UniProtKB/TrEMBL annotation:
Name of the protein this chain belongs to: Zinc ABC transporter substrate-binding protein
Species whose genome carries this gene: Malaciobacter halophilus
GO biological process: one example: metal ion transport
PANTHER family: HIGH-AFFINITY ZINC UPTAKE SYSTEM PROTEIN ZNUA (PTHR42953:SF3), HIGH-AFFINITY ZINC UPTAKE SYSTEM PROTEIN ZNUA-RELATED (PTHR42953)
Sample GO molecular function, one term: metal ion binding
Record family assignment: Belongs to the bacterial solute-binding protein 9 family.
Keyword Signal: yes
Amino acid sequence: MKKVIILFFLSISILYAKPRLSVSILPLEYIIEKITVNKFYYISLFQENYITEYPSKKRVRKLSYSPVFLSMNLPKEKDYINDLKAISNIKVVDVTKGINRIDNNPYIWTDPINFRKIVLNVYDEIVKLDKAHKSYYEKNLTKLLRDIDEIFLAVKMQLNTMKTYNFYAFDEYWDYYANRYRLNIYKKKKQKLNAKQIYNTILFARENDIYRTIVDTHDSSDIISFFAQNSETEIIKNNIFKKNWQANIFIFTQKIAED
């Protein structure tokens, strides 16, 4: 029993001995994990269901134990950042600095070039908190940046083989991806269509070679099913808030580029 207690407190002491970072979304956890491996403790405000999630006070309290909160400057962050500041001296750092936005769209990380800039901003904060391991982090950063560059080129090559560059989408989550790779996204409202709207949607799709509609994985299944049946398009689901940014962008690319 004594050994169990000792191991428990030892694990706790090791955990709190690590530098800590609190972050806005899971893709930031991905960056920290790639750069620091297991030398940092990190926790995200939002999980994969960002759209419908409302973090608890208990989770906000856990985030407040970190000296720094890495913000993606998302609309839903604001109230929680105010809560964090009210209960701690946490420093809020905007890791989207230096990135130009399209029509004030905050979902910038779907563009690999933007994600690369975010990585560099996150790295700067990591080194500030743990200068002793800077050379180790720099080595991992170099590898991560090389991987991102390879992803950028691989996605570009795969998309170059597509028969059409036109898509329907319900949301603005993929605008930066589309802008980077010169895809055309035509927005549709998340609602059931009347007869005239159905006719216009199908006609426009036929005239512009639109075969697929991009939706978030948390969108209403009823709306998705209705739109698929009345637009002559295939539904492609994607969640940009998943942690593994690399796998997510590869899978998404494969889906929209399939013949």
